[in-house]
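Following the same procedure, backbone shapes were mapped to integers, yielding the entry below.
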Amino acid sequence: MARDPQVRMATTEDLPWIHELRHRVYARELGQHPPHPSGQLHDGLDGDNVYLVVAHGPVRTGFVSVTPPRAGRYALEKYLTREELPVLAEDGVFEVRLLTVEPERRSTAAAPLLMYAALRWIAARGGRRVVAMGRTDLLPMYLATGLRPAGRTVRSGAPSFEVLTASVRELSRAATGRHRATVDRLRARTDWRLDVPFAVPPDGCEHGGASFTAIGTDFTDLDRRHRIVAADVLDAWFPPAPGVRAALAEDPAWTARTSPPAGAEGLLARIAAARALPVETLAVGAGSSDLIYRAFGRWLTPASRVLLTDPCYGEYAHVTERVIGCRVDRFRLRREDGWRIDPDRLAATVAAGDYDLVVLVNPNNPTGVHAPAAGLRPLLAAAPPRTRWWIDEAYLGYAGLTESLAELAATDPRVVVCASLSKMYALSGLRVAHLVAEPATAALLRDWTPPWQIGLPAQLAAVAALRDPAYYTDRWLRTHTLRRALAAGLAALDETVAVEESVANFLTLTLPPDHPGAARMVAECRRHGVYLRDLSPLSPSYEGRAVRVAVRDTAENTRIVAACQAALETLRPGPAATTGTPRTTAVAATAAGPAG
């Protein structure tokens, strides 16, 4: 039996009812606007708003409006300038407006459900902060949701309103904390039809790797792996080098039961030889995430200020902003610039020396754009002495190892390079990475590395992999060929879908504004056993429309193209397309925000 109520995006068929209900509530009931002869209320943001609707069967119950940052303006700006309300100038700000419920339904769960739906929709599109206007007489209710006054009061018609704001992270924590029982009740009885998961991610970080849920995290039926295409994570499409496979197969029983060298001394020596670096400039970890957590946990505090590119690999925002609690600013990369880093603009951003840490992923994940070392070296040389730079080179092999800044990191105390062997050397399941820093910095990180951090199978595999550079160079070159063929196949499916190649082992599809969003595309492809990555949670710049596709072998790439073709045919907009498609919490209560 269908659940009730239903939560969904508004359709064009809902718009007359939305405008009529707005008129009844905000013009006639609250006296916020003069009545209009048409009996409908519109405003200048109607073309940019996204509407979410709650309905009980065929009867519409209520709606909430979200204005995404891509609109370039907010309703609040009719009352306050960005100088008066600086939060409006921040990145990733979504305005929640017009939470409105039919009078006879105001004692139901419609309003809380709309609040929660707005939160999840915003979070799934990379939103970082919510702003709203709430009636002053209902302020205690707003505070209970996690919103906080911004210190401004405005009047719109008869009612007065408090300007409210909160980070998406704070509101998500409230939903999984003090409001968890309410959220659980809503989940049990709601027909959730939004293209975002109902549940807040347990750790607040939207990780990839959903394909493993199809295989089974209990590992009881690994044969399932042959039925899916795992293109949502950037694992290598090729197997490890023959020497790696031989090392792992020689005596697996001994390898499994034997403790490894406590400090990975042999692995450190092999990395030093392969990269022509002094061994004292190296530290190793069980994948780059291990090094990120360990290093940042030693260097940063909640008082630290960090600069990340936007878009950027999501783990960096998670660790700095959510785990440590740093102040995090974004250096926005622009689609119109091909997502490239402008060294001059970046130099101007960091020139004042305000940042304790700047993170550059190069080539960038998820954009796949490489910043040449020749442009970064002068930037780093002129950077303020107090600012540390973390250069993530997880995918550098695809651009060429000669582009590494590891040699600079070995001598400059401001620069650290992190390099993963997991993705480039087909060792993701074994988790091996290293960083390069001047000796004192590297020694501190080695001091904080537990013994036996990297298991014996991983150490054996990594050493063997680094002994066979010719094999991997050939595989990296083959990856470029496969990526170009995959891009051509996808580009031929629909001329309105933009295909952006990278220099690495992935590419990006950007859906047109009038198309259902990336989450719908990803879900539809999963029905065909193909797992792709919705990039929406990583940045509001993706506008809910970007899908990352990992390069696989020829056969699996063929399946990817076929699945995307089927998904596009299914999702191609029809006459009842949803309104406010992405080009967007908890906020207020029934009839809470101004209509204009």
Q: What stands out?
A: DSSP finds 19 helices and 21 strands in the chain. The two ends are 39 Å apart (CA to CA).
